[in-house]
């Protein structure tokens, strides 16, 4: 395969090796240099895919800790007429993976950048989960601290978009709790092992996280529906539930959280404001 000198952003399989396109295989076989987030992982993938690179072709690591340092040298090689392929551990590069600085540097230097599209975890999850697929906003990984995560989700509360984000097992419940506090009760789907033998879609509501008892491993793609996916609970119904919860007692903020867990499309902050206004 004859490659025009350029940076190629190559999508690789999420799990099923049959998802690699013939074009992507050709680029990965013949590029003068392959940049990989994890060279051992990508090397093992090449073996499974049957990709055999000729002697003399480059293969080096390119990750979040060395991207800034290695970008100038990569741009120099591109300007000298070489072809470079960028891959992440799985799926489409740059989506919560390294590469943005390199692509921007190439654009600024006048170096062509060509996408080689293919597998993408956010799009795969959206296409098969049954929640509204558009408009959607991809958020990457939420912040680790719960307060920051709640602020992070709050920024997207009123957009009307489906929200898609990545999360790890150790952080999943905390991130869903932060999403509930910021967004109110919404439908969600957890997609795991996409395209693999044990592919799984787990459904729930942010207001009923106690029901999330399934054993989950690895990293996940989470899809949170917009508030009108099931229809926003009418204000009159919210007021009725608010009366019930106030009768049970508790601090206003605690009451607001309980009410938000029973209704759709209302955040604890909105319910709390309703209390103070009455």
Automatic annotation (TrEMBL):
InterPro entries per the UniProt record, alphabetical: 4pyrrol_Mease (IPR000878), 4pyrrol_Methylase_sf (IPR035996), 4pyrrole_Mease_sub1 (IPR014777), 4pyrrole_Mease_sub2 (IPR014776), rRNA_ssu_MeTfrase_I (IPR008189), SAM_MeTrfase_RsmI_CS (IPR018063)
GO MF, one annotated term: rRNA (cytosine-2'-O-)-methyltransferase activity
Every Tetrapyrrole methylase domain range: 7-209
Top-level division of the source organism's lineage: Bacteria
GO cellular component: cytoplasm
EC id: 2.1.1.198
Catalysis: reaction(s): cytidine(1402) in 16S rRNA + S-adenosyl-L-methionine = 2'-O-methylcytidine(1402) in 16S rRNA + S-adenosyl-L-homocysteine + H(+)
Claim: Transport is one of the keywords in the record: no
Top-rank EC class of the record's enzyme: transferase
Function noted in UniProt: Catalyzes the 2'-O-methylation of the ribose of cytidine 1402 (C1402) in 16S rRNA.
Name of the protein described by the UniProt record: Ribosomal RNA small subunit methyltransferase I
Provenance organism: Paucidesulfovibrio gracilis DSM 16080
Gene expressing this chain: rsmI
